[in-house]
UniProtKB/TrEMBL annotation:
<keyword id="KW-0479">Metal-binding</keyword>
<protein>
    <submittedName>
        <fullName>Cytochrome P450</fullName>
    </submittedName>
</protein>
<keyword id="KW-0349">Heme</keyword>
<dbReference type="InterPro" id="IPR017972">
    <property type="entry name" value="Cyt_P450_CS"/>
</dbReference>
<dbReference type="InterPro" id="IPR001128">
    <property type="entry name" value="Cyt_P450"/>
</dbReference>
<keyword id="KW-0560">Oxidoreductase</keyword>
<keyword id="KW-0503">Monooxygenase</keyword>
<dbReference type="InterPro" id="IPR002397">
    <property type="entry name" value="Cyt_P450_B"/>
</dbReference>
<dbReference type="Pfam" id="PF00067">
    <property type="entry name" value="p450"/>
</dbReference>
<dbReference type="InterPro" id="IPR036396">
    <property type="entry name" value="Cyt_P450_sf"/>
</dbReference>
<keyword id="KW-0408">Iron</keyword>
<comment type="similarity">
    <text>Belongs to the cytochrome P450 family.</text>
</comment>
Length: 397
């Protein structure tokens, strides 16, 4: 049979039937590039738990070196591209700054911005929910975390897309490479300005806490702060946009679920967890085997790129009963949408809070959503999955 192509339009539109096929032969090669897909919950967790066998350090090489002269690999030396023990040290350092306090400081702003965006949606006949809500809320949050002036918020999405292109190693024409290098150095220059400012005039914010952070006598260097800031942008923006869009799309398709959640807002966190499970914003993440590894009866060769199929693991019927259904009463919290093990998403509590408060503000003002007719256009990315636009009409409460 032809290998499954995880970039094909059919897969992007609805990966669930492909995942069922993958789990029936749980280690198999897929397109593009003959990636080895690991699709069962147990096997994906095993790979996440064993960085000695499945390394993240390939990110350090995963970009064209000549593209990056003078700007450096934007993600390579961030948490996402390190294995223990370097990862452990860096995670301890940034965790010193990225705390409950950091998240709590954002709560009032998130509520205010979400309320304003929801009011704005109701003033219009039809909106693209992505542009009207799902993007500006996380852009506000990431902009605040990075200490950027509000005028820079609209540029964050473009920066994030461009940085992802840089680490995706595809053939690009020279003008495009020149453009990507320019935008990357622009983003890094803004971060450098923030770092210098917070060193001189510390405030109550993440960047000030980061430049002051010290673990076992070692503080963080400027290039490490830049790498971390880049990981925050790439890890925290697009993922949260997709989570918000997927939730509202599901509520448009299942108004009875929305009615239940509106009547009992305490169900909102359960709704968010189910959407994370069913429509995982990050459908897969890549590792490289460091040696030959036997998994599920299959021998994976050494130095093979491997896709940990998070979206498939989250629908594994061995772990989740009625795996393809949204069940608000589900007790198990075993979805791995935020990863697992040492790289478990640092922003998970923030993403959950952002979604809960954002949706509380939205659902208290809107009693329903009607999707505009027509096919949805899905984004084009190997790991992230979400609609590019979500045209809809909101029905006021
Ligand atoms: C790591 C998902 C939001 C920052 C990860 C990983 C996943 C993930 C799956 C692990 C990647 C791997 O092991 O290869 C998500 C999802 C989100 C979300 C689904 C939203 C719904 C955020 C936010 C932030 C953030 C809001 C920060 C503002 C990070 C960072 C890492 C990470 C820094 C790297 C952690 C490490 O390597 O130790 N995320 N994320 N994420 N995420 Fe998130």
């Amino acid at each position: 049979m032809k290998p499954i192509d995880v970039m094909s339009p059919e897969f992007r539109a609805d990966p669930a039937p492909f995942y069922a096929r993958l789990r029936s032969e749980p280690i198999q090669q897929v397109e593009p590039g003959g990636l080895w897909a690991i699709s069962r919950h147990e096997d994906v967790q095993f790979a996440f738990k064993n960085p000695k066998l499945f390394t993240s350090t390939f990110v350090q090489q995963a970009s064209n070196p000549e593209w990056l002269e003078g700007v450096g690999n934007p993600l390579g030396y961030s948490l996402l591209g390190l294995d223990p023990p370097q990862h452990t040290q860096m995670r301890a350092l940034v965790s010193h700054a990225f705390t409950h306090k950091t998240i709590a400081r954002l709560e009032t702003g998130i509520r205010r911005v979400a309320g304003e965006l929801a009011e704005n949606i109701l003033r219009q006949k039809e909106v693209d929910f992505v542009q009207a809500f799902a993007l500006p809320l996380p852009a506000f949050v990431i902009g605040e975390l990075l200490g950027f002036a509000p005028e820079l918020r609209p540029r964050l999405k473009q920066w994030s897309d461009d940085i992802v292109s840089i680490v995706s190693v595809v053939q690009e024409p020279p003008e495009r490479i020149a453009y990507l290098r320019r935008t990357l150095s622009e983003f890094q220059d803004f971060l450098r300005e923030v770092i210098a400012d917070r060193r001189a005039r510390p405030r109550e914010d993440l960047m000030s806490d980061l430049v002051r952070a010290e673990v076992e006598g070692r503080s963080i260097t400027e290039s490490e702060v830049i790498a971390f800031g880049t990981a925050l942008l790439v890890g925290g923006l697009e993922t949260t946009i997709h989570l918000l869009s997927h939730t509202v799309r599901r509520m448009a398709l299942a108004p009875e679920v929305l009615a239940r959640v509106r009547a009992e807002p305490a169900l909102l966190p359960a709704l968010v967890e189910e959407v994370l499970r069913l429509d995982s914003p990050l459908q897969l993440t890549v590792r490289l085997t460091t040696q030959e590894v036997e998994l599920g009866g299959v021998k994976l060769p050494a130095y093979a790129p491997v896709a940990l199929m998070v979206g498939s693991a989250n629908r594994d019927e061995r772990v989740f009963e009625r795996a393809d259904e949204l069940v608000l009463e589900r007790r198990t919290q075993q979805h791995i949408s935020f990863g697992y093990g040492v790289h478990f998403c640092l922003g998970a509590p923030l993403a959950r809070m952002e979604a809960r408060i954002g949706l509380e503000e939205l659902f208290s003002r809107c009693q329903g959503f009607v999707l505009a007719p027509g096919e949805l256009k899905w984004n084009y990315s190997i790991g992230l999955r979400g609609p590019v636009a979500l045209p809809l009409r909101a029905i006021p409460a």
